[in-house]
Automatic annotation (TrEMBL):
<keyword id="KW-0812">Transmembrane</keyword>
<feature type="transmembrane region" description="Helical">
    <location>
        <begin position="40"/>
        <end position="63"/>
    </location>
</feature>
<feature type="transmembrane region" description="Helical">
    <location>
        <begin position="15"/>
        <end position="33"/>
    </location>
</feature>
<protein>
    <submittedName>
        <fullName>DUF975 family protein</fullName>
    </submittedName>
</protein>
<dbReference type="Pfam" id="PF06161">
    <property type="entry name" value="DUF975"/>
</dbReference>
<feature type="transmembrane region" description="Helical">
    <location>
        <begin position="160"/>
        <end position="186"/>
    </location>
</feature>
<dbReference type="InterPro" id="IPR010380">
    <property type="entry name" value="DUF975"/>
</dbReference>
<keyword id="KW-1133">Transmembrane helix</keyword>
<feature type="transmembrane region" description="Helical">
    <location>
        <begin position="91"/>
        <end position="113"/>
    </location>
</feature>
<keyword id="KW-0472">Membrane</keyword>
């Protein structure tokens, strides 16, 4: 899969609409800033972790909706919050993320590498959950979704690892701008992940 074409497609999706893209990712960026700020306060950190997962769900679903229908949300920030609970079973995506993170932690207790490998294998779970909902399923089975993600990522885990690694330079640059760059990087990165899933499902074609 051509990463350059994949990223160019994301930039094309956002062309002329970067304000909307930044607003969609804004809650996630704020949650991450807050997590760093209160990292030594366990109770607040637990609340922020829950909110972080919810805004991640909202961001992923909003960007996926935008790209699927080629329509910019009229109220981007509101769309992110609305899509946190937009599925027939509102807490389904949140519970899926909890299970996925739980599995990753358990694998990481063995060794770091198995945890990373499983994280790559489970990376498509949230996107697949949404695919199931679009097909009319009201309550996708979490274990089935995770298994489908593992199957979809067979032969693609290293590819996905390199794709993520290709954003390190942008991450360093964002830190050098005192974090301001993350307001741009987060939607750019997550938009690329949305397009990656689309290409993966289509058989690896970017366009």
């Amino acid at each position: 899969m051509n990463f350059q074409l994949l990223k160019q497609k994301t930039l094309h999706n956002f062309a002329g609409n970067w304000v909307a893209a930044i607003l969609i990712g804004l809650p996630y960026v704020i949650m991450n800033y807050a997590t760093v700020r209160f990292r030594f306060l366990s109770f607040i950190l637990a609340i922020l972790a829950i909110l972080g997962i919810l805004v991640l769900v909202g961001m992923v679903f909003t960007l996926s909706e935008w790209f699927d229908f080629n329509q910019v949300p009229k109220a981007p920030l509101t769309a992110t919050f609305r899509n946190m609970f937009s599925t027939p079973k509102p807490w389904g995506p949140f519970l899926l993320c909890i299970v996925v993170y739980g599995f990753m932690i358990l694998w990481s207790l063995l060794l770091i590498v198995p945890g990373i490998v499983k994280g790559l294998a489970y990376s498509q779970a949230l996107f697949i959950y949404r695919d199931h909902v679009l097909r009319g399923e009201t309550d996708p089975d979490i274990n089935e979704v995770i298994t489908e993600s593992r199957r979809l990522m067979n032969g693609h885990k290293l590819e996905f690892f390199w794709l993520n690694l290709s954003f390190i330079g942008w991450g360093i640059l964002s830190f050098m701008t005192l974090g301001i760059g993350f307001f741009w990087l987060v939607p750019y990165y997550m938009g690329t992940m949305v397009n990656y899933h689309e290409a993966l499902v289509a058989g690896g074609d970017v366009i």
